[in-house]
What we know:
By secondary structure, this protein is an alpha/beta fold.
Amino acid sequence: MTTPNATDRPVKLTVSVLGTGIMGAAMARSLARAGHTVRAWNRSRDKAEPLAADGIHVAGTPAEAVRDAEVVLTVLYDGAAALDVMRQAAPGLRPGTAWVQSTTAGIESVPELAGFAREHGLVFFDAPVLGTRQPAEAGQLTVLAAGPAADRDTVTPVFDAVGSRTVWTGEDGAAGSATRLKLVANSWVLAATAATGEVLALAQGLGVDPHGFFDLIADGPLDMVYLRAKADLVLEDRLTPASFAVATAEKDARLIVRAGEHNGVRLDVAAAAAERFARAAAQGHADEDMAAAYFASFDERRPSA
């Protein structure tokens, strides 16, 4: 079920944000703008410190960050990181707290995370988000969520603050239905990103002006706003700051491949994309926008197309 997020809910919450990378920091700011009390923690504290200017309390430990929180939001690297941080947070958790797990964790990690929630009396929501830096900063993400209907009123103000709509995929967060949908969506995003890099690299290799290609497909069924947006980052050498980093794209691509393998599906394109992202990272592009997978087409680092 897809629902537009409300914008007039008066409920104000104390929300703990664990993980303040590209997405977590933006989501914390959106929550603060909506009037919620926000406490943030990050493994590298220097990445969290700028949030103090937005009225966000920067905590020294996960346990401090979650103390008295009504909602805990995790936006970490992967499932293992989310579980490790929540274990550190355990002394400050209280039964009945809602845990909104927004890390792209992989389907095999979700049951383990949900098990931790059960052990500590938490209400578990599997809730990854679609979007990158810009929509995150604007509070315009799409939230994919699964969790008990009886407790959704608690987390809806959080979803309203960080996103423009919420897509509910089920009532059992442990089943990972939201994460499954996120991996399907990301498989398309990563394939399109890898293809964009390859078409630019091939154009360069063949001496073709890439703008001639864009003119060729303009306004037709092969044209795509995403293609042009990612291509512009390469053509205009605007790969930093990253909207979605190469290293994270590689991690997600490998989660997608593994999910396919565990369910009898061979994903050759996703596997190739993972290798492209890995090569680009090894060339020094790990923290750049994932459009930098373009460089994986060459044996050595080259200037932008």
